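hiii so my PI (J.) wants the whole complex modelled not just the main chain, which honestly fair. so below is everything: two entries, each one labled with what it is. i double checked the lines twice but i was tired so who knows lol
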Amino acid sequence: MSNTALLSSIVLLPLLGALINGLFAGRLPRRVVEVIACSTVIVSFLFSLKAFLQLMALPVGAREIHAHLYNWVAVGNFRFDVAFYLDPLSSMMSLIITGVGGLIHVYSAGYMSHDPSYGRYFSYLNLFTFSMLSLVLGNNILLMFLGWEGVGLCSYLLIGFWFTDVQKAKAGKKAFIVNRIGDLAFIVGVGLLLGLADGNLDFTYLRKVTALRTLYLDPMMVKGICLAFFIGATGKSAQIPLYVWLPDAMAGPTPVSALIHAATMVTAGIYMIARLNFMYALAPEVLTLIAGVGAATALFAATIGIVQRDIKKVLAYSTVSQLGYMFLAVGMGAYTAAMFHLMTHAFFKACLFLGSGSVIHSLHGEQDIIKMGGLRKKMPVTALTFLTATMAISGVPLFAGFFSKDEILWKAFTNAHAGMTTVYWGKIFFVVGLIAALCTAFYMFRLYFLTFEGEYRGPKETEKTIHESPVSMTLALVVLAFLSVVGGYVQIGFAHVHLLEDWLAPVFAVGSLNVVETMGHSWEYATMAMSVAIAGVGIGAAYYLYMGAGTKIPARMMEAAPRLYNFVWNKYKIDELYQVVFVGTYRSFAHFSHRFADAFVIDFLGVRGTGALAQGIGRVIGRLQNGDVQRYLVVFVVGLTLILYLWLQ
Amino acid sequence: MINTIPIHYFLLLSAMLFTIGMLGVIFRRNALIVFMSIELMLNAVNLTLVTFSRFRGDSSGHVIAFLVMAVAAAEAAVGLAIIINIFRHKKVVNIDTMDRMKY
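here's the output for the full assembly
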């Protein structure tokens, strides 16, 4: 199998599935639709695995596979190909996308078993996989942008999947519009880069000219481009200030939340910056900004997560917070740590979302954790896998999240790269990250205890119908829970296991400017002990407040500071703020445009004005032509006399 | 004998005739009188042409005068036909009633 055929089949198989299901699902039995949807992604995963092995067989420095399909655009200097590019980074991403994606497709077959629009659902889901793969495997920024827009579209379609519910349709619209703001910045970045790089947007070319400095790159321009791309990433990857769409995106079916809004699409921003690491190396100020935004988002979203009552909302804010961690790592120039956390997060967050989906499915749509409780006895597999993933995200030692989060915190602690030497930003980010980790451990175990432990608090009549989910659903849970445990063993800092770092090293060779302050192993153990202690405190607090002696305390705290509680419960009123500041301003501007520019200038002055002017002039001038020949003659004679008089002078 | 009369006599007469004709065209209401006034103007011009031709000893002025007469005859025929038609239609030939062709 040639490289071209291999890489194209990875990307195009899901598209084929999307086309078949999109066009013919109405005529196919449900079982066939499910098989087509799942098998295309699973086969795509097998091909990704094959490509991964092929890549591994190559010598370390030459781990690149190119696949040129055809010339897409050729205008003057501009030349864009539809071509795929497999390197260690995109190989890793394609494995995550098709692997986790395949599991979620299988899970969806069980989850959507009662939904009549399964054809549309699977078609969108396959289309999403296709878009995400072309985002990741595209060999130039334009193809990446195509995938970027494609995943945005699929996200919109799937959030508003149950579009008869106006709230859900609105959530989809919100996600799309907020993403457009980021996408606009992305387009600006692409445009600027097009000018800077003489119309060649291939990643390999860009990396070469940046590394060898064979092309003059205006430093301010590079910073601007990096900033524009980062703003694009804040939209897609739900960072401050554009994170507001992600919590609302939970309106979509839960497997969609797991696949798109936790494991894959929202990590596109991190992937993009990691892919362009060589350019970001030239813009350390932007990197510092990224780290700052990431740290702020990590803490901010975690605090909101503490008080949320909707099981999926808690997970959504948790996702925003974990993405903040990844941006923190990216901003430190620690791309490997970011990709490591991206991978482990994909495992445990997908597991958590699928677990919550299993709960919601079993409770017929109930999402309020206050009305749950004691589900462990009824749903042992879901509870166990959920607990495993919860321990992974909370940073319990030996689970995947522990290693990746610890790596990020350690990289922040030791960071001393050019943009940050004067102020010890790295240390500040480390502390912020620790506090966020405390919140994470607390709200995740609060979620687990309220959902699965204690007594059932919902209505009595639903209690009897609670059941464990079918095998198609629990299978994915078990696999993902397993990966949440072992996923971290590819990179263990203190034990000198550097599989992932070695694997990704060629990609980040140019961009890794993580100038590490040399610190002894004692420091490394100290920070690790700190994060373990923090996780322990968070879990202990959650146990005390929701399981142990202190179960009355949360309610009393709510009563003691109702305003603070309401402020956080209402997500710091950010939505309301945006509503007033941006939507309100935009509306008044639109109103002004409508009243002034459209109704007054164009309609009144422009269209009706020119008409009225011509008519008015005609009415006045037309009076001269009154049909009286003798008056014409008088004017004629007077005029002639005047001309003769002037002429003869 | 005619050579003893100075040229400005002829030209003055011609100018007077032309002015009378022009005032007639502008101010008279009866279309027939207007018509006659036009003839008067044409003949005033003819007189000028002939005068200059004679005094300059160049006969091309005479030729043009004949041409004008021919045109005037044709015009009279057509114009009178139009006026008669208008009269048949409106029973009046006052020129101020003929103002249908306007804005």
